[in-house]
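Q: Here's a chain of 377 amino acids. Please give me its 3D structure as C-alpha cells.
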Amino acid sequence: MKKALSLLLSALFLLEMISGFASAELDESNPVVISMCGAITGSYSDYGLGYQAATQVQVDKWNANGGIDGRKIVVKEYDEKGEIEEGVAIAQKVVVDEESYGMVGHFWSIMEAGEIYQEYGVPMIGPAASTMGFTDIGDYIFRNNPTIKTETAAMLDCAKAAGLKKLGVYYLATDWGEGSYEQLQVLVEERAEDGFEIVLAEECLPDAVDHAAAISKFEAADVDAILMFCFYDSVAPFTIQAGDKLEGKTIVCGVNCYNDEFIELGQSNVEGAMAPLLSVKSEDDPDMAYFVEKYRELRDGKSPSSLDMQCYDSVGMLLTAIQNVGGVNDHAAIRDELATMTYEGVCGTIQFDENRDATKEYVPQIVKDGKWVAYEG
C-alpha cells in the first residue's frame, strides 16, 4: 500500500511539474539546439522513427519543464536513409553548424560519422552503436549501447539459461554481422566451461528475402539453438519460412528483436524465440510510464524498443550535460560533463566508463503467448 501511494505521489508530482511549466513562455530567440540523426526513411525506417519519437518525447518534457534556463530546446532532425554516404554528408553538415550543441544518433553510418564528429570536436552519443572500436575513435564519442561483445555474451547467456549448447549461427554479411560472429567464436573459446559448440554458421545477405537454403542446412544440422545476428525484419521472415522445420531448435536473437513489430510480423512462428533485454525500469516508474505513454501516442500505439529507450536516455544525458555547464555551447565542457556524470534514466543508472561506454546489464526474455516475458526456465 505504501509503495503504491509513493508511486502515485511521484506520478502526480511529475504531472504537476509538467503542467506547471506548460504555460510558461520559453525564450525562442536563443534556443538550445541539438541534432538527431536516424534512418527515418528507407529499409530500416522503423529504427529511425523510433529515434524520432523518443527524442521528441524527451525534448517536449524538458520544454514543458522550462527548457534550459528558460530557453527553448530545438531539435534538428536528419534522415540518413539507411545509407552510409547520406550519414557522412549529414555529419559534415552538423559539425559546421554553430548552433548545434551535440549529436544523438546515426545508425548505419555510426563509425564513419563518428570520425567526423571527433575531428571537429562535437559530442556524439550513439544509442545503437555496438561496433567494436566505436569509442576508440576519440574522446568526443560516447556509446549508450552494449558493444557487440557484450550483446553476444548476453545472447549466449540466453542459450545457457535454456540449456542450449549446440549452436547454429545466421549472421548478416555486414561489418556488424561479421563482427558479431567473430566475437561469438572468441566467447565460445573463452567460456569453454559452458560447453558451447558452433556446429554450423551461415551468411545472410542484407537484402535476402529467401532463406530456404539456410533453413534446410539448419534443419539437417545437429543444433539446438540458432543465434541470429540479423535485424528483426530478417529474423521474423526466416521463422515464417521455416514453419515447423526447425521444431526443437530455439531461435536466439539480439536486442533489436525486442519490439512489437517482431511479434506482429512473425506471429506464432516466433513463439519460443529468446533474446536478451536491457535491465530497465518497470512501467510503474513515473518517468518510464510517461515515456511509454507519450511514445505510444506518437507511434499509433507501438511500444518503445530497448533502442528507443536508449535514445530517450541519450537525449536526456546530452541535455543534462548542457544544463550542468550553464547552457553554454562549449563542446569541450559538454564532453567533460558527459564523461563524469551519473544519469538516472529509464534504463536505470547510467555512467560512462573510462572508454566512454555505458555499462549495461541484461536479463533473458522469451516470446510466450505472443508477448516478450522474462525467461523463467
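Q: Can you summarize the key feature?
A: The CA atoms of residues 236 and 266 lie 5 Å apart.
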